[in-house]
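Bumping my old thread because nobody answered last time. Still need a sequence for this structure:
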């Protein structure tokens, strides 16, 4: 690399992005400050003046007594929790804290297989034994959909000593499960229901959105307030309700996974986002619903374009209608994503082989929506080769070691094609669907080796290989 200490590559890239100024359909949902709460905009011009530490009057996130305690209390009231913790390391650390405060070595925890990788980190720290449950497949979205309460009940029947269940709700695609029924099942087995509600922070302020985790009877949930509720990136909350979760254990778990120098700017942005949700949230959600319905109708009127709509799908329990998920017949989602950015100056949130996902913000306009619809129409009219294939996943493999035991075991690297029957030391997740096909401690099957080899041949994104050439995998040898 050409080393030149006068360069500032990140700042240069941010300035370049600002110059491009694309229509922005990504997180964080304040959409580049265009709809942040007024109270936060007052700070943002002179942000460094407020980048403080624990002074005599600014309180301490790890032992809050004054301003932070009050801000957390206000948030708890708004989100229907008994106790709320502000998080400055994202929902990543919230998920880790929920797990390590609920289960430890020897305990079983039920986990939805489509969970985020922070769940694996939580398992490595806690040492708990995962039991996986696979969501139903959504044929309309070509990815995982909801988890049926019947499957959860069945899992408890097979493993009555499960101590907690953690699932993602809503998914990145806005898909929700019947959380109320699932909460009842968990509680009838004396187990905690933990919800990764990273994408559902605004649910509790509108009855037009799916029920929130707290409204459904979950014991804990973590929410990325930055993804859909206007806070700065990394700013999340962990909510607790009822008596099953141990607040003091959560508190001590958060001291493990959070910085000892939490940013007051991030905490202020949480306070401001809560304020906007409380004061303006219903209006913001009404606007988002109208706009997303407008975009959905516009996209669905184009030949060959399918914008997901729960009405036409009996396979999923519920859907966050403010999320836009669309595909174009015979076109790969990654290519649509690239084309939107490169040719139409539109920045989408995420893509997979089939779908493109957009996150709207309260400042987005019909004018901007029309630009999006026109761009998608032009892309759909271009006849190009496809990269679509059927969504499928190999069966969940057997587990020989817990993720923690695998993480700390001795390892060696072997060629992928020789991995059948060996215990993986790493998590491998081809994208799409972005869901791990194997976790540390699980045993490679022939199907998994073939699935990963095919993904490599198809040049898919693959997360998790420590060998960046993807020729070898790490296996456990003791
Ligand atoms: C489902 C899900 N859970 C958790 C996370 C982690 O959240 P955060 O970025 O707030 O750490 C993400 C991030 O994209 C996510 O998609």
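Sorry it took so long. Here it is:
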């Amino acid at each position: 690399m050409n080393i030149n200490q006068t360069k500032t590559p990140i700042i240069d890239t941010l300035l370049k992005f600002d110059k491009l100024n694309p229509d922005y359909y990504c997180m964080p949902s304040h959409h580049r400050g265009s709809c942040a709460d007024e109270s936060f905009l007052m700070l943002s011009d002179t942000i460094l003046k407020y980048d403080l530490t624990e002074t005599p009057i600014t309180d301490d996130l790890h032992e809050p007594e004054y301003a932070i305690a009050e801000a957390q209390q206000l948030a708890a009231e708004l989100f229907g929790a008994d106790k709320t913790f502000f998080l400055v390391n994202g929902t990543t650390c919230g998920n880790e804290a929920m797990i390590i405060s609920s289960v430890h070595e020897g305990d079983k925890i039920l986990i939805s297989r489509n969970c985020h990788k922070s769940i694996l980190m939580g398992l490595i720290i806690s040492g708990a034994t995962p039991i996986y449950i696979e969501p139903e497949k959504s044929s309309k979205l070509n990815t995982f959909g909801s988890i049926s309460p019947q499957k959860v009940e069945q899992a408890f029947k097979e493993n009555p000593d499960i101590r907690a269940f953690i699932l993602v709700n809503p998914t990145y695609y806005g898909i929700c499960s019947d959380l109320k029924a699932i909460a009842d099942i968990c509680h009838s087995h004396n187990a905690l229901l933990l919800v990764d509600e990273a994408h559902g922070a605004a649910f509790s302020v509108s009855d037009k959105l799916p029920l929130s985790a707290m409204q459904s009877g979950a014991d804990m949930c973590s929410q990325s307030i930055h993804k859909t509720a206007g806070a700065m990136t990394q700013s999340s909350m962990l909510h607790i309700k009822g008596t099953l979760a141990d607040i003091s254990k959560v508190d001590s778990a958060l001291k493990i996974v959070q910085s000892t120098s939490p940013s007051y700017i991030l905490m202020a942005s949480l306070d401001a986002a809560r304020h906007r949700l409380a004061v303006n949230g219903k209006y913001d959600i009404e606007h988002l619903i109208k706009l997303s319905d407008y975009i959905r109708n516009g996209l669905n009127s184009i030949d060959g374009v399918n914008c997901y709509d729960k009405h036409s799908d009996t396979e999923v329990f519920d859907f966050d209608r403010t999320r836009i998920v669309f595909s174009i017949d015979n076109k790969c989602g990654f290519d649509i994503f690239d084309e939107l950015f490169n040719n139409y100056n539109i920045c989408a949130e995420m893509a997979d082989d089939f779908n493109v996902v957009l996150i709207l913000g309260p400042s987005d306009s019909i004018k901007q929506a029309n630009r999006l619809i026109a761009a998608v129409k032009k892309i759909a009219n271009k006849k190009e080769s496809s990269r679509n294939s059927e969504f499928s996943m190999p069966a969940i493999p057997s587990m020989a070691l817990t993720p923690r035991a695998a993480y700390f075991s001795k390892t060696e690297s072997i060629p992928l094609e020789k991995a059948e029957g060996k215990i993986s030391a790493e998590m491998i997740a081809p994208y799409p669907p972005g869901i791990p096909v194997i976790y540390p401690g699980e045993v490679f099957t022939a199907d998994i080796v073939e699935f990963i080899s095919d993904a490599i041949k198809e040049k898919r994104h693959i997360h998790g290989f420590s060998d960046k050439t993807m020729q070898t995998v790490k296996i456990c040898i003791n």
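The chain has a mean pLDDT of 94. Let me know if any region looks off to you.
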